[in-house]
Amino acid sequence: MPGDLPEYYFRVRENGATVFRVETENRQRRIELEEIAFVNLRNGTIKPHGEVTLSPGDMAAIIEWREQRTAQLAARELDDILRAVDHLNLATQWAQSRASDAELEALSDPLLLAMHDLRGVLVRKKADRLMKGEHSRD
User: Fold this and answer.
1) Within this chain, do residues 65 and 110 fall inside the same structural domain, yes or no?
2) Is the domain of 104 the same as that of 121?
3) Is-contact 41 66, C-beta < 8 A?
């Protein structure tokens, strides 16, 4: 079993992870996790824990995890947005075919405000992209 374990364990936190070195070479043959660093995904920093000095191998593994995790979170974010599109379509079908007057009364204003806000942001962003495109052609 010890041969199957990774060298590092990353305990995911809201803004990154706590990094542990997985230790299996001890008399009791127990798995021990030695806390070695903190990774902040928002600003990309890697901070050693306490008096720990990170080896080049430690740094390489942490940087590789940080890159993979950042890509994974970006993919999830896009997937969440695509799911939101599906939910809007399902909400449209529900409102058209099954919603009662009371349900529509309770949900119309919050939905309309959220959609109005989203539309405004999307229109502004599209206009900005179009304007940048015109400036780059000049």
Assistant:
1) no
2) yes
3) yes
Encode 36-80 in three state secondary structure: EEEEECCCCCEEECCCCCCCHHHHHHHHHHHHHHHHHHHHHHHHH
Domain, as residue range, for 69: 2-98
What's the mean pLDDT in 100-114?
Answer: 97
Q: Binning pLDDT at 50, 70 and 90, where does residue 137 land?
A: confident
Share of the chain above pLDDT 70, in %: 97
- Measured CA to CA, the distance from residue 101 to residue 52 in angstroms comes to 63
- When pLDDT is averaged across residues 105-122 and rounded to a whole number, the result is 97
29 CB-contact burial (10 Å; exposed 0-12 / middle 13-18 / buried 19+): exposed
Per-residue 3-state assignment (H helix, E strand, C coil) for 26-38: CCCCCCEEEEEEE
Tokens of 63: 């940087």
Considering the domain architecture, whether residues 42 and 82 belong to the same structural domain is answered as yes
